[in-house]
Specification:
This protein has about 775 residues and is α+β, with helices and mostly antiparallel strands. The protein is built from 21 helices and 29 strands. The chain binds 2-acetamido-2-deoxy-beta-D-glucopyranose (6 copies).
Length: about 775
């Protein structure tokens, strides 16, 4: 009694002084409430989320597509004859609301527990991630499972129900749908499709061909029905069973809302009921249209078709595999959590939120041979650049999520690189630099020739860096051999253009074009270094040495010219016209004061190229540390705006030489994920002052949050850059005055082998230096 009234007093006081304390949800969350909870997230067209904001219970809102469009998904439970709603927020149904008790998520699962009178219902949404199995990873299906447990020690009777609407198949609810329910001895499936099928064409980001499949394993307690939403839901809440009938009055999605339902009789149980499972997916065939070297367009299928001849057979295996799939998912969750906790608890939480979203915009495809059989040697992964455009295989989007591929399975990364390599090598794309994307409308990977957006240094550097890191992780040099002349062409492009970049866009296209971006020049130098290593691996000693020499020379020039005059930080723009600047100091100070996140240095660590000296990392760490001390949400991308991208914050964290700085970056991104200001699938583009997300949502680039895991224990068998002898920089003696703040310990997660060349060039470079660049280095 005493403790209760004391608690009450404390609560009253708390809510008096902090009224917001009472506004959070009554349920618990572990580890936190994300902007939107992944429910079924496996492909660009199987992407269902529960919007959260400050916290929305499973039965207080509707599941939505990543665009925000509702995808009806309802759930009811009857306990000892009394009906409760546990999912969705439909009107007109005779029931009470179950009370959500808790929510928990892991990398692959979202789990809700709701109290319905004397029982607790556990609903788990599992979207598997199967990095080592192309068939399983290409399944566009997700699981929902339900288990009921007595919460009062007594035995109870329970029945559960769930339905989906036809909103799952279209972006326009006026569209006409057709459907059927199919039963066999193993599985009951509802199949729903548009009456007019249009391959390769989206409507409000939904694909216009294929069908949604809602399926359950056949059991004695299972019933199903197709019919109007309120009729079926009331049928269940009144009678507890469905009629195994189908409404065949095909109509528009919103016309007396047809729904597709299952009900299970769980019978009587004293502690815990059996678990019932259903699967939900969206399948189409063909899936992706792809331009071949001869200009013809190829129809490609999701990879699982190479093993199954019908969707029904694939679904039967998927459902039957549930127990094993759950074990694999738990093992994967545990591995990621253990690895990420080596960094921090915050980092483990951030990676757990990112996994399903990162893989949820990609599809693994296979082509057919002339005889109609599948060519399983021809595997290509296609990724949709969700929300920021609808482009196919945007190179910098793949690059952003690249750490995830390296961490999970680098071979999958190769399948994501191949379309860009094949298209570029075909000659259909005429530019010397790498292509930005393969088509502006997913799933049409039909090429751009010379049109479309260009990010010359960005994408060219990205491709070289990704190819080398793939080789380093797998030992497979086939890409280096097969695409040698293309890679060499790209390296030559960088050699001619990367040191002093012309005005162009980087990955951060929304910031517009900018002249002489230091961060781009850094990427260019690392790209050239990557080509040196690739040449080394393919036995071309001459090229290896020549590119190494260029890369080292570029790096030293970039450091000299791209460092602020006070030696405190890298600048936003390299100032090769420094001598001119000296005479126009007032004007040029505008440039010198600008700085940005030099996230492209990450690749230098990832590849072990070690082009840039520890002094640069230490300088940046100190600079970031000072700036981070005054922020809650990390640092802006650069001084032009207050916005940033979450994955670049994490890349900067990954190479920070201080755990304080690293943790501040991670903490800033996690704060964005947890602050309750968004209700869309996590958006990577955000305002670092307000802690609000900009327009991007559900982008695969959150795979970049795995940047620290890609560095952890990376089996980097790099050969190292061959030391050049010709290039030397003369520096005045540094008056090392390290900045305050987080700096300190050397970075190098790889603690790379000592690199005489770089040391000889730059070891004397220090903080707080004003130095003179020898004139011979000016272009
Ligand atoms: C990576 O995935 C491929 C399939 O693409 C698989 O053959 C391979 O075994 C996987 N690698 C590892 C280390 O599991
Ligand atoms: C939705 O579909 C209907 C029927 O086909 C059509 O008349 C209408 O223009 C569409 N609306 C939008 C916004 O595309
Ligand atoms: C429930 O079943 C009874 C017969 O068992 C029937 O009379 C009644 O109409 C049913 N109610 C609903 C809502 O289907
Ligand atoms: C299968 O695909 C591989 C890789 O694209 C290709 O080299 C091979 O020629 C293809 N096989 C046939 C029979 O077309
Ligand atoms: C890199 O190391 C791995 C593991 O030690 C090995 O399997 C692979 O062949 C090596 N790759 C190269 C390019 O030497
Ligand atoms: C590759 O690099 C290693 C280490 O620097 C060197 O010993 C070897 O000669 C190089 N091979 C070629 C072909 O450049």
């Amino acid at each position: 009694m005493f403790s209760r009234s004391l608690a009450f007093t404390l609560l009253s006081l708390l809510s008096f002084f902090f009224p917001f304390v009472a506004s959070g949800p009554a349920w618990t969350s572990d580890p936190f409430i994300p902007p939107a909870i992944p429910l079924a997230v496996r492909s660009p067209y199987l992407s269902a989320w529960l919007p959260q904001g400050q916290g929305t219970a499973l039965n207080a809102g509707w599941a939505t597509f990543w665009t925000g469009m509702i995808q009806g998904w309802a759930g009811y439970i009857k306990v000892d004859g009394k009906a409760y709603a546990f999912m969705g927020s439909a009107g007109g149904v005779t029931s009470e609301k179950a009370v959500q008790k808790s929510f928990q998520f892991t990398s692959t699962q979202s789990t809700f527990v709701l109290t319905a009178g004397p029982v607790d219902l556990t609903v788990t949404f599992l979207s598997p991630v199967e990095p080592d199995d192309l068939v399983k990873q290409s399944f566009p299906f997700s699981y929902m499972s339900m288990t009921v447990a007595s919460n009062d020690g007594a035995s109870h009777f329970a029945k559960v129900y769930t339905d989906i609407s036809a909103e799952w198949i279209t972006g326009n609810v006026s569209s006409l749908a057709t459907w059927k329910a199919t039963t066999d001895s193993n599985v009951v499936t509802h199949q729903i499709q548009l009456s007019t099928q249009v391959p390769y064409t989206e409507d409000h980001d939904k694909i216009q061909n294929g069908a949604a499949y809602f399926s359950a394993t056949q059991t004695s307690g299972l019933t199903y029905q197709i019919g109007q939403d309120v009729l079926l839901r009331n049928q269940f809440t009144a009678n507890g069973t469905l009629l195994n009938t189908q409404d065949t009055n095909f109509r528009a999605v919103q016309d007396e809302w047809p729904v597709f339902a299952f009900a299970w009789n769980l019978g009587k149980f004293s502690s815990t009921s059996a678990t019932v499972v259903c699967s939900l997916g969206h399948v189409r065939d063909p899936a992706v249209q792809y331009i071949k070297a001869d200009g013809s367009k190829q129809d490609r299928s999701l990879y699982f078709w190479s093993k199954y001849s019908t969707v029904a057979a694939a679904i039967a295996d998927f459902l039957q595999d549930y127990t094993n799939a759950l074990s694999r998912a738990k093992a994967l969750d545990a591995t990621i959590s253990t690895d990420a906790k080596k960094v921090s608890q915050d980092y483990a939480e951030l990676t757990a939120l990112s996994l399903r979203q990162a893989f949820g915009a990609s599809e693994i495809t296979v082509s057919k041979n002339a005889d109609g059989s599948f060519n399983t040697s021809d595997v290509l992964i296609f990724t949709k650049e969700t929300s920021s455009s609808a482009s196919v295989n945007t190179v910098d989007a793949i690059y952003s999520m690249w750490p995830l591929y390296l961490y999970m399975n680098a071979t999958m990364g190769k399948y994501a690189l191949l379309p860009g390599l094949e298209y570029s090598a075909s000659g259909l794309y005429k530019q010397q630099f790498a292509v930005h994307d393969l088509g502006s409308h997913y799933p049409q990977a039909t090429g751009l020739a010379n049109g479309g957006l260009t990010m010359p240094i960005e994408e060219t550097g990205n491709m070289l860096i990704m190819v080398l890191s793939y080789i380093q992780r797998t030992g497979d040099t086939s890409l280096a051999t097969q695409y040698h002349s293309l890679l060499d062409q790209w390296a030559q492009y960088l050699q001619s253009n990367a040191l002093n970049p012309t005005s162009q866009m980087s990955s951060d296209a929304f910031a517009g074009a900018l002249d002489k971006q230091t961060n781009l020049a850094i990427k260019g130098a690392i790209g050239i270094a990557a080509m040196s290593e690739i040449a080394n691996l393919t036995g071309d000693a001459t090229k290896a040495a020549q590119y190494a020499s260029t890369a080292v020379s570029f790096a030293s020039k970039i450091v000299s010219s791209g460092t602020s005059t006070d030696g405190q930080h890298l600048t936003l723009s390299v100032s090769f016209d420094r001598l001119v600047a000296a005479r126009h100091r007032k004007l040029m100070s505008l440039i010198f004061l600008h700085w940005g996140l030099a996230y492209n240095l990450y690749a230098d660590q990832l590849l072990g190229t070690n082009l840039f000296p520890d002094t640069v990392y230490n300088m940046q760490t100190s600079w970031y540390g000072n700036k981070l001390a005054n922020t809650q949400y990390g640092l802006p991308l650069d001084t032009r705006h207050t916005y940033s991208l979450t994955h670049w914050e994490i890349w900067a964290a990954a190479i920070a030489g201080s755990s304080t700085v690293r943790d501040s970056f991670i903490g800033g991104v996690l704060k964005l994920a947890t602050n309750g200001k968004s209700n869309k699938p996590f958006g990577d583009w955000y305002d670092t002052v307000a802690g609000t997300e900009n327009s991007f949502t559900a982008r695969p680039v959150v795979g970049g949050h795995f940047a620290l895991l890609a560095l952890q224990g990376a089996p980097l068998n790099t050969t190292g850059i061959v030391a050049p002898t010709s290039t030397q920089i003369t520096l005045t003696q540094p008056t090392a005055t390290p900045g305050a703040g987080g700096g300190g310990a050397p970075p190098s997660p790889q603690a790379a082998a000592s690199d005489a060349s770089r040391a000889s060039v730059l070891h004397s470079f220090g903080l707080g230096v004003v130095f003179i660049l020898s004139l011979s280095l000016l272009p």
